[in-house]
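Query form — protein DNA mismatch repair protein MutT

QUESTION: What is the three-dimensional structure of this chain?
INPUT:
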Amino acid sequence: MLIDTVAWVRIEGGRILCARPRGKDVFYIPGGKREGSESDRETLLREVREELTVALDPATVVHVGTYEAEAPDLPAGAVVRMSCYTGDYRGTLTPSSEIDEMAWFSYADRPLVPPVDQLLFDDLKGAGALR
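ANSWER: The structure tokens for DNA mismatch repair protein MutT are given below.
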């Protein structure tokens, strides 16, 4: 089973934006699963708007990597694929009703995110983007 997701990589001051969905105790890189025949970009724009109430500028969205890892909370063998994008936004980052909390994580917070997100953390740390 493959869970295909997209994620918004927003780094400020050496920290990455993460969000904790309502009712969950794990933080994730903002984003989610596509609906119907949505493209990665369409999914990203919709998910970020739904979760953090800001509008990404489609002209600035750039693919920065794709990661795959097994998910401990899913059936054995289930893999999450996360296609990661950067992009500028308009508005004020505000958690929507879907999100209980947002936070800016450093590399030290890596254990608080799922395995697929940890792969992104490792690459960002290696590139000097995450402190």
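ADDITIONAL NOTE: The helical segments are 40-52, 115-126.
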